[in-house]
Q: What sequence folds into this?
């Protein structure tokens, strides 16, 4: 089985994120970066599937040379090889999906697994565009019924249930109303939600093996994709600071404030 | 001289840090309170490759540098010094075999620990022989192709869970250091009794026991090196482990420093955060300065090992300074927390109790000063 999986480089939420005074973006200085947690879950799921259906996990990331860090992390977890789309500039979701479409058409995987969204822009668009443009089925917000304490999780059983003939996959999706189960024909695009699995650590032997795994360099030009942004961010601002709470003397005052000030009912 | 970590070293450090933060630290208080052995955590660390790092590739280790190992040691100790000691004491126990054993002994006594999760123990200290290593009285009497061992060992880390012991004993007490010998004791031979787990002030997750040897038969082919070489084998082992012990102290100190900074920014007195007061600022500055100085000494002593240089003096600087620093830093951390620091509900008093041991084991701060003075004044 061949799986294409993404490893986006995102700001580490443990870094203090500050908006630039001119509202044009966030302050980059002093920030730490990591692999998008939802992509890490995607890599983990891919590794579990390929343990069951031997094949390849190809991890892809888009950006400048610094994304090699995230590719090496995925390789250290156990991915087979990496693809680096070298483009250090700004990208909107359509450009990203366009680049991934070309990579998918080149690699011809059985499954493309992406994080449902990345924790920087939180757009949740790329997987959907990708499926649409490849004309593949899509199953977004893939989750798992079994808890993380279950034997299924401890034994790293894949949550995506691929048929023995590699022709379809059953995905349980986490949606607002509950759980929605879809059977998709392969190839398909699946996007991962938080409760799909617990990603493994990059073991030290894994880190050492990753050094010699290949990273193929591609560019928007070699892929034939125009990445001119169709979207521009005009302004970024911090949410207003949380106001302190107030104490009220009695229930009547509480009801009045809820009705007249908070407009709660 | 480049003080930056390589990408690979950064990755090792990141894995150890994540493991320490997600797996070790959340359970640290529990294992401290109950003084129980975190076997599952240690096993998980073994599975990630955080143990046996410097064991050669041929013997199933990762063949990594001492520097890479000290990076990991700091992260593990940051999570819990007791867990770090348990994991690294295993590596320490393999060192005599690795440094002075034959190829055949490497296969028999080192490989099993890289192939499966097992623990080994370093058995040197005795009830009446701590700093005075040469004064140890566990005797080994040769009888044909066996030694008959009698004696007692004290403060033995991992003893209860060990499948193998690197034992130091004497064939002739009168010869003092020239009589010492290193034997590998396998499993639980007849006559070996493992005593009760000590109720310690700190590093309580670490299993510490006495060992009693009553006419224990150990094959002569389990002897590492020759009779009379035991002292130099022990000393060579400690040269290797001193950088690691120093880094435990750095990890403990860093944890204490981080807690103190966070607390100082949020605790308000006299209408402002206590971080605004110079008394606290100066304490925090000194804590950070000394922790980093200790770290750099430990880094250098590890790099010297990697370069094949004799590191006795620098590693002694490192172990002594780092241990004494950790004691000062953790004591100051309790002070920054004030009354809350004194309570077990807050994390810093454990750090102070954990730090104390680092001034004592692996050569007390006093013995380190003797080692340094001897190096500086000899010849």
A:
């Amino acid at each position: 089985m061949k799986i294409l999986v993404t490893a986006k480089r995102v700001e580490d939420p443990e870094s203090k994120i500050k908006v630039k005074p001119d509202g044009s973006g966030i302050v980059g200085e002093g920030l730490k970066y990591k692999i998008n947690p939802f992509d890490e879950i995607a890599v983990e799921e891919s590794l579990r599937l390929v343990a069951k259906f031997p094949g390849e996990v190809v991890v892809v990331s888009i950006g400048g040379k610094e994304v090699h860090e995230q590719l090496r992390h995925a390789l250290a977890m156990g991915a087979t090889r990496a693809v680096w789309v070298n483009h250090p500039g700004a990208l909107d979701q359509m450009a990203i999906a366009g680049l991934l479409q070309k990579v998918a058409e080149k690699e011809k995987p059985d499954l493309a697994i992406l994080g449902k969204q990345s924790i920087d822009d939180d757009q949740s668009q790329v997987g959907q565009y990708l499926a649409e443009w490849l004309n593949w089925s899509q199953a977004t917000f893939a989750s798992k019924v079994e808890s993380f304490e279950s034997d299924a999780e401890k034994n790293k059983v894949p949550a995506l249930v691929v048929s023995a003939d590699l022709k379809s996959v059953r995905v349980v999706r986490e949606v607002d109303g509950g759980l929605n189960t879809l059977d998709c024909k392969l190839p398909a695009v699946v996007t991962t939600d938080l409760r799909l699995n617990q990603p493994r650590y990059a073991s030290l032997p894994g880190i050492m093996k990753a050094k010699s795994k290949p990273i193929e360099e591609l560019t928007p030009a070699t892929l034939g994709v125009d990445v001119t942004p169709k979207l521009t961010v005009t302004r970024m601002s911090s949410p207003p600071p949380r106001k302190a709470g107030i104490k009220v003397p009695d229930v009547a005052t509480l009801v009045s404030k809820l009705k007249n000030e908070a407009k709660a009912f | 001289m480049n003080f930056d970590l390589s990408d690979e070293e950064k990755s090792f450090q990141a894995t150890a840090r994540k493991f320490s933060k997600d797996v070790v630290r959340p359970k640290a208080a529990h294992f401290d309170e109950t003084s129980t052995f975190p076997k599952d955590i240690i096993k998980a660390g073994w599975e990630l490759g955080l143990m046996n790092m410097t064991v050669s590739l041929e013997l199933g280790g990762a063949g990594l540098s001492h520097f890479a190992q000290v990076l990991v040691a700091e992260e593990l100790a940051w999570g819990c010094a007791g867990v770090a000691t348990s994991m690294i004491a295993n590596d320490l126990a393999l060192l005599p075999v690795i440094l002075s054993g034959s190829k055949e002994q490497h296969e028999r006594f080192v490989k099993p620990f890289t192939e499966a999760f097992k623990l080994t123990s370093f058995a040197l200290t005795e009830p009446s022989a701590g700093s005075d290593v040469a004064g140890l009285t566990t005797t080994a009497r040769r009888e044909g192709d066996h030694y008959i061992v009698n004696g007692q060992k004290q403060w033995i880390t991992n003893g209860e869970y060990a499948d193998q012991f690197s034992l130091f004993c004497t064939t002739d007490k009168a010869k003092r250091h020239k009589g010492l010998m290193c034997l590998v004791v396998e499993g639980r031979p007849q006559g070996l009794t493992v005593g009760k787990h000590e109720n310690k002030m700190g590093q309580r997750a670490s299993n510490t026991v006495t060992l009693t040897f009553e006419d224990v038969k150990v094959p002569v082919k389990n002897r590492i090196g020759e009779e009379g070489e035991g002292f130099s084998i022990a000393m060579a082992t400690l040269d290797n482990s001193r950088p690691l012990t120093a880094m435990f102290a750095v990890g403990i100190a860093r944890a204490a420093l981080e807690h103190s900074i966070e607390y100082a920014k949020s605790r308000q007195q006299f209408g402002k955060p206590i971080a605004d007061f110079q008394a606290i600022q100066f304490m925090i500055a000194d804590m950070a300065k000394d922790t980093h100085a200790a770290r750099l000494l430990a880094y250098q002593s590890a790099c010297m090992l990697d370069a094949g240089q004799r590191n006795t003096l620098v590693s002694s600087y490192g172990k002594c300074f780092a241990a004494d620093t950790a004691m000062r830093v953790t004591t100051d951390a309790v002070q920054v927390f004030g009354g809350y620091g004194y309570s077990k509900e807050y994390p810093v008093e454990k750090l102070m109790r954990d730090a104390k041991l680092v001034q004592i084991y692996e050569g007390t701060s006093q013995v380190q000063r003797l080692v340094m003075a001897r190096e500086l004044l000899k010849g």
Notes: Chain A has a mean pLDDT of 95. Residues 85 and 218 of chain A are 5 Å apart (CA to CA). Helices of chain A lie at 37-52, 68-77, 93-107, 126-134, 151-154, 204-210, 220-223, 251-260. The radius of gyration of chain A is 21 Å.
